[in-house]
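Translate sequence into structure tokens.
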Amino acid sequence: MRWAAFALLAVACAHSRQSRLSPHPAAEGAAEDVDSGEVQPRASPRAYRHYLDAQLAKNADDFATAASELREALLYDPESPHLHCVLAEVLIKQGRLNDAEEELQTALALDPKHAPARLLSARVAVARGNLPEAREHFEIAIEGQPDDAEAYHDLVRLLLATGDAPAAEAVAERLATRLRGAQERDSDDVDALVTVDRLREQSAAVWVELGRWWSQHGDDEAARRALVRARSASPSDPDALAAEAAWLETKRRFADARERYLRLLSQRPEAPEVLAALARVALAEGDVDTVSAHSRKLLGLAANMEREDSADDRDEDRRDLAAALLRVAVALLGAHRSAEAQHALDGALRLYPHHPELSFYRAVALVQRGHPRDGALAFEAIERRIVASAGETASPVFLGMEPEAFVLDARVQAALARGRAGETQESMRRLRLLFAAHPAEEEVALALLESFDRAGKAGEAEQILSGAVQAHPDTQSLLYALANAEDRAGMQSKALTTMRKVLSGQPQHAGALNYIGYTLTERGSPMDLREAEPMLARAVELRPDDGAIADSYGLCLLKLGRAAEALAELRRADKLSPGDPVILSHLGDALIATGRRDEARSVFKRALAPPRAPARPHPLAEAQAMIDPRDRTDRDDAKVRAEIEKKLRSLAP
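Result follows.
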């Protein structure tokens, strides 16, 4: 249906390159339409005058005048299929689809092979849902005007919408053959060069469509071939580069993805969406410093935009820039660099003051930085602002959530922040009420557990969640929270069983994959490790920016004897979650396994060192200050420290 809607919108473009009507020539014969290669019937000067007036009116969006002028032109040239076709285009813009179809039928009765009328008829048929008829029109349009690249593209979209990828690929090959033929003609004629450019652009776009389709349907090799063909057709095409880069990201080929994004950036050095994509790739590789560099670049662009005139024609640029800053900020939050995230969000908020999404993530940054009371007040202010502004003109949506959806999130986060600020009873009270009202929301259930666990009441949270699961047996979202509660309450065997139930219903649940994989890894038997490795590899694919998941996978690789791979993954985990003693303990083990005992000793010492401000200014002081303070509720710290101290003693001379 989305494609059908696109087709109806695209109908108006059917004649953008076939809208010439030849005036009556001084000599005998007829004038040739250069774009289409077909011979147009002669038009009288009076018809041509009305036709030109119609084009001027159409370009000014005065469709009523355009239709009137075209009807005047048809009084002088009633047998011109081109005039009937252009009139149909104008009628479609007026929403008069039935009248447009009548004009197209007249045009095709006059000339059954009139390619523009066939193309427009095909798009109307798509909008009507008559796909077989549309396919027939597209085929005849291509036959009548084989250099019209748009007809190929539309036909490929139609075939993919019906699931006929092989036929779509055959059409793409026909277009590629046409492109090669046009290139081999090597003409200096301007129209011939324009035709080559159009064929090249549409050929790349068609292969991109195929690449995305194959990727969505799980055929990675077919997707790879199609995306390579897209880049071959037009090596610098931005859509082809972006599509290939995004696909390479999903395959964890980050170096190749980065190379494509850098080529895009060379075309548009200040493109916010490309800078955000590069930041995303850098974060997946654990290169948080590069993420920060891209954030600073975006902040510079935002500052420049603030100084410029904020005219309406810059609204799209402002929106793109704010969205890019938000995406980078979310990445920095996940990497525990909340000071930098807050800085990025402040830049976005200067473009969109009081924006709900931007304000929400800024409040998250405040809490993560160790200012929970300020964060709680910010979340509560967001809720009040959203409720008060109900019915007003909506702000742009950046990450897909409407402002109203933030009301529940803001209430949950405010309650959690109150707990972190020491108001444990108030936090538990609020979350009891929220959970009673929203028992099916996984976020609320997990927040309830965190609040109770912080107060040392994980067992009580387990009882509440267990009762909720019994009352709502079909609610999958409760099971993950219950499994975590069982684990916190010391019921690990029961938690593992519950987590397997989560995975049976949600095979792509990254949290469940990580929990089961890490539990099996800690058991350490060959059978457990073989089961854990693919689970954790998939969890890393789903959440490449999660330091805890990277740590789990690295430990599994280490126990499987793949020390070099483990070391690379654990170094990445340390970059994503700097200072975490558990990760540092595993990283030290991997360093020992690869013969780096001195470096392992330094890592263990870093894990044991208490965070403290330097006695005097130091080049690393500012960077260290950017890393969030730890907010750990687990009571295994002493055990972890004891294990690290034992490892450190074993390395002593």
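Note: Residues 462 and 485 are 5 Å apart (CA to CA).
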